[in-house]
Amino acid sequence: MSPTAVNRSRVLLVDADHRSSQQLARLLSEDGFDVELARDGTTAVEALTQPRSIDVLVTELRLPRLDATSLVRFARARHPGVMVVVVTSFANLFSAERFGQPVPLMLPKPLDYDALLSLLRERTERPRESARPASPTP
Amino acid sequence: MASETRFQELKRYVRFDDADAGLLRELGRVAGPELPAIAQRFYDRIREHEDAHAVFRDEAQIQRLQRSLVDWMKRVLGGPYDEAYFEQTARIGQVHVRIGLPQRYMLTAMALIRVELMRVAERLERDVPATREALVRVLDLELASMLEAYKDSFVERLEQTRRQEQSDHGAALAKAEQRYIAAVDLAGVMIVGLDQDCRIQVFNREAERVSGFARDEVLGNGFVDRLGLDDGSGGVEIKLRNLLSGASNAETLDSGLRTRSGKLREVVWHLASVGAVADAGVSVLATGRDVTDERARDERSRQNERMAAIGTLAAGLAHEIRNPLNGAQLHVSFLERAIKRKSDQADMLEATRIVGDEIKRLARLVTEFLDFARPKPPELKPTSLTRSMEHACGLASALANGHGVKLTCDVPGSDVTFMADSQKLTQVLLNLLNNAVEAVASSGTGGTVLLRGRRGPRQVFIDVEDDGPGLPTPDAPIFDAFYSTKDGGTGLGLAITHRIVTDHRGSIDVSSRPGRTCFHITLPLEPSGGAIP
């Protein structure tokens, strides 16, 4: 079931709620992703400056030390074509448009893991095409 | 002497006779050539005098008058001194009056003429004293006749002035009265005058407007009873009694008023004892201001402030709740997966699934609460009433079919397009339809739900009607947040519905009895000024 190591997509999870992130990382790695964790914006930026590539950035909207829009902008400059998923408990108050094109996916908390997983699978099968505008979440 | 005219009487009085007439004719013959010169000198003199001169219009007029003076002198010296002569003189007097020649100048001018003609008489070869006397007599006759014109005019003017004053006075009174009537009638406050028995004697237009009663419907009726005044503590009568007995001069009263159509308005009254300035009919003057809308506005603005505060709190709280829920959910997902790997753990899997469902329910509550407490303002776009209704019915039909409830969509004869947020409108209709279906289904006898849409002059009316058991109590606070009679209901559905409707500047109310419950929504075609922020 798990793909071979060379094919594994790399996900950067950014959320101050570390315990939840760890659980999410555990599930994702079981499902074939390489996951890296960051608890705040600056740690995330550090991870993004490493030479290894990042395929997916999953970030909370509200972060300590750096706001998510800046983080997304940095990630996209550094890793063109990176897939961005914004997870937030403020889904009804923020518009995804402010993150610029392509409009990232917005998923409300509590996260529906299966929904996230199918999205990630759909997009990371052909990672370089994930740069096209995201369709709205169901 | 009854047949004697005024002129004959005057002639008799000054003893003017035919001899005088003969002497004057002789004088006229001698003076004839000099008369133009005399007239010239006369008018030269008048020109020298400012006030006397002021009565003349221009030089041409003076020339004309000069010629008239010559004619006049010829007539005075020639006669015949009959009634026609007298009338002529009277006419000249009237001309003097008409051009505004003051009497003093007429008299003194006559002195000038007299002197001139005396000088001519002095040069006569005979009858000089008798001619002088005749001249004095005829000129005084002239003066007396001309002065009559002044007298007649004066009397007439007096009468005219009196008439004018009378009519002016009447007009002024009428005008003053009119002004007061207009002031009372057009005042932006209710003005109600009461007699000793508190019966309505004055009822102005604003009072008509607020109460819905026409003046003739209330005049003579009891103030308190007719207008259904009630301050909730029976204070109305006490205050009126205080005023009528002189125990107080003024009172303020905050009371409900029952309009002609039975609606309740809130009116703040100032009641004043008319006291010393009382006219026969009015003992107490009540001025009232309808504060219903004002208070509703204040209440709405207070409500908005409260909601804004709650919204801010809710947003923060939602974040704080969703994060732990997120953690819990992820752990549940993990647990589920771990349990699935082992066989024979169906009950554990079920328990885990229930925890997951409960987490989702909590999350939904948070979402709904945030929707209610801090909604996005409606995005108003031209919206089809028919399409919105059919869309909502389509969404509700699954639930209705599931419960065996008949759902009818009664759209208007011709479609109405109005400004609304169609998504939120659908949410409202769906919410009400689902509630209705569930209410009807709870009675377990099938039943029907009807969605009806109609157009008003400046609004649309939407009714959601069901034949279910009705609300538990008629005044249940169904639109309040967290009021729910359903198992598993968040108690926010109707609160959100209410909020969306009022955000559209519309209104929603409900009438309910067993067997018929109707939610009635009124939405403006054009919510002027946009949504309430």
Structure commentary:
Helix content of chain A is 33%, strand content 20%. Chain A has 138 residues and is α/β, with parallel strands linked by helices. A five-stranded parallel sheet of chain A has the order 2-1-3-4-5, with helices on both faces. Residues 1-5 and 127-138 of chain A have low confidence and may be disordered. Chain B is α+β, with helices and mostly antiparallel strands and 533 residues long. Helices cover 59% and strands 15% of the residues of chain B. In chain B, the strands form three sheets. Chain B has a five-stranded antiparallel sheet with strand order 2-1-5-4-3. In chain B, helix 13 (292-341) runs antiparallel to helix 14 and helix 16 packs antiparallel against helix 17. The chains are: A alpha/beta (138), B alpha+beta (533). The interface between A and B is medium-sized, with 21 and 25 residues.
Write the layout of secondary structure elements.
The complex is a heterodimer of chains A (138) and B (533).
Chain A: E1 9-14, H1 18-30, E2 33-38, H2 41-49, E3 56-60, H3 68-78, E4 83-88, E5 105-108, H4 113-124
Parallel strand pairs in A: 1-2, 1-3, 3-4, 4-5
Helix pairs in contact in A: 2-3
Chain B: H1 6-14, H2 18-31, H3 35-48, H4 50-53, H5 59-78, H6 83-99, H7 103-122, H8 128-186, E1 190-194, E2 200-203, H9 205-211, H10 215-218, H11 223-226, H12 235-245, E3 250-258, E4 264-273, E5 284-290, H13 292-341, H14 346-373, E6 381-384, H15 385-403, E7 406-410, E8 417-420, H16 422-442, E9 448-455, E10 459-466, H17 493-503, E11 507-513, E12 516-524
Parallel strand pairs in B: 7-9
Antiparallel strand pairs in B: 1-2, 1-5, 3-4, 4-5, 6-8, 9-10, 10-12, 11-12
